Amino acid sequence: MTAGGAYDVVPEVGALYDAVPAYGARRDVAFYVEEATRGGGPVLELGCGTGRITLPIARAGVAVAGLDASEGMLARCRTKLDAEPGAVRERVTLHRADARDFSLGTTFALAIAPFRILQHLVGVDDQLRCLASVARHVVPGGRLVLDVFNPSFAALTRDRAAEQEDTTVTLPDGRVLRRTVRIPRVRWTEQVSETELIYYVGAPGDPPRRVVQAFDMRWYVRAELVHLLARTGFAVREILGDFDRSPLTDGAPEMIVRAERLTT
Predict the structure, then answer these.
(1) Is 65 exposed, middle or buried (0-12, 13-18, 19+ CB in 10 A)?
(2) Which of 25, 98, 143, 230 is deepest in the core (most CB within 10 A)?
(3) Is the omega angle on the peptide bond into residue 247 within 30 degrees of 0, that is, cis?
């Protein structure tokens, strides 16, 4: 199942995604807005989802094209975009497409792949197809910025098969959303964590509806990312360890890659 398909199994996926407090609190928004304003755009965003990063970039005055495979997430983004001022709406274009193979007919000064989008691509062929598609859409000398988590092998080896609650919120219509997460299996030779996000949604006092969003989460090591990017025409210029632009260390939570599209 592609990432888009995994999201669309969840009814109201966009609204439920936006209700998760941890997503709204992520520090990546300011980081990617700064990256976008440094170059002045236009920006291509892979996995734009509900517009969590797309809309702040457009509000900062930069044109941005958002691409996502999930119709549910894009529908939510369109609804939010409709509420924005005209100048912001004019800076945003949205495309439903597979990140592994897309053609938008234009090029960009910057491409971004936020919130671990690359980790939804399990096989090397899919990873290379995605990065090659990005390379076709970035001008020579343009940039690609992406993030994945820096794998903690202590966490990966811990038993996480039981559901662990990460969210309980009341939705605007009064229903309660409770979400749990579990990792029933790690496939070590493939560097994949089989992941389940489990949504319980219902009115207070009623039995909740239970929906499981299951997907594979591929983890990477530093040298592997450098190699994949080199094979698709990018030179890594910097790898950061967090969105405060601190350096990558063994204990850093993120690997944030800033790469340049080579001219030859």
Answers:
(1) buried
(2) 143
(3) no
CATH for 124 = 3.40.50.150
Q: Note down pLDDT in tens along the chain; length 264 residues.
A: 345 567 888 889 999 999 999 999 999 999 999 999 998 889 999 999 999 999 999 999 999 999 999 999 999 999 999 999 999 999 999 999 999 999 999 999 999 999 999 999 999 999 999 999 999 999 999 999 999 999 999 999 999 999 999 999 999 999 999 999 999 999 999 999 999 999 999 999 999 999 999 999 999 999 999 999 999 999 999 999 999 999 999 999 999 999 999 986
Same domain, 82 and 167: no
Tell me which residue range forms the domain holding 108: 3-149+219-261
Cβ 147 vs Cβ 26: under 8 Å: no
130's tokens: 């995605």
Q: What is the dihedral of CA 66, 67, 73, 76, to 10 degrees?
A: 30
Strand segments (E) across 107-253: 108-113, 138-149, 160-170, 176-187, 192-202, 209-218, 234-240
Tallying the residues shown for the chain, one arrives at 264
Alpha-carbon distance of 154 to 196, in angstroms, equals 20
The amino acid that residue 28 corresponds to is D
Phi, psi of 156 (to 5 degrees): -65, -30
Number of H helices, E strands in the chain: 10, 11
